[in-house]
Amino acid sequence: MSILQPDEIRSLRSMATHSLSKPDLREVGNNIYELITHPGRRSFKQRARKQTVELRPDKLYTPGEVAALLNMSYDSAVRRMLTMKGCVDMGTQTKRYKRGKRMLRISGKNLVAFLRGKTRE
Questions:
Q1: How are beta strands 60-61 and 104-107 bridged, if at all?
Q2: In a designed cystine with 60, which of 15, 69, 86, 105 is the match (CB 3.0 to 4.6 A)?
Q3: Other CB atoms within 10 A of residue 44 CB
Q4: Which of 37, 27, 26 has its CA nearest to residue 4?
Q5: Residues 6+ apart with CB under 8 A from 46
Q6: Average pLDDT over residues 67-92
Q7: DSSP state letters, 48-82
Q8: How would you classify residue 55: left for phi > 0, otherwise alpha for psi between -120 and 50, otherwise beta?
Q9: What's the pLDDT score for residue 48?
Q10: Of the candidates 33, 40, 43, which has an alpha carbon nearest to the alpha carbon of residue 12?
Q11: Residue 13 · residue 28 · CB < 8 Å
Q12: What's the confidence (pLDDT) of residue 54?
C-alpha cells in the first residue's frame, strides 16, 4: 500500500470555492481509488505500454516499443514477437552455468507487414 503525499491528498478535494457546496463523492472516490491502485511509481512494463512510438521502416524495434505500438503488455509483446516473421534474437546463448539472455529486435518493415496482415481491407 502506498502512502499518500500531502499534495496528493489536497488534489483529492473537489470542493468549490464557497463552503455551501458539497463535494462530489463519486469523483473523490474515483480519485482515491486511482491513487491506491495506480501508484506514481510504475514498473518498466507499464511505462513501455504508455510511450508513444513513431513507426519507421528502417528502425529496429524493441519489445517495449512493440508493446506501445500494439497496445499490449511487455510480456505479450515478447510472446508475439517470437512468432513474427523477421524477428531476430540478438542475445546470448545458454552456456553451461549461465542462462541465455534474449534481445529481440524486429525491423519496422516486418512490423508494418505484420500489422497489414492483421487488418482487414
A1: antiparallel
A2: 105
A3: 9
A4: 37
A5: none
A6: 88
A7: HHHS-----TTSEE-HHHHHHHHT--HHHHHHHHH
A8: beta
A9: 67
A10: 33
A11: yes
A12: 86
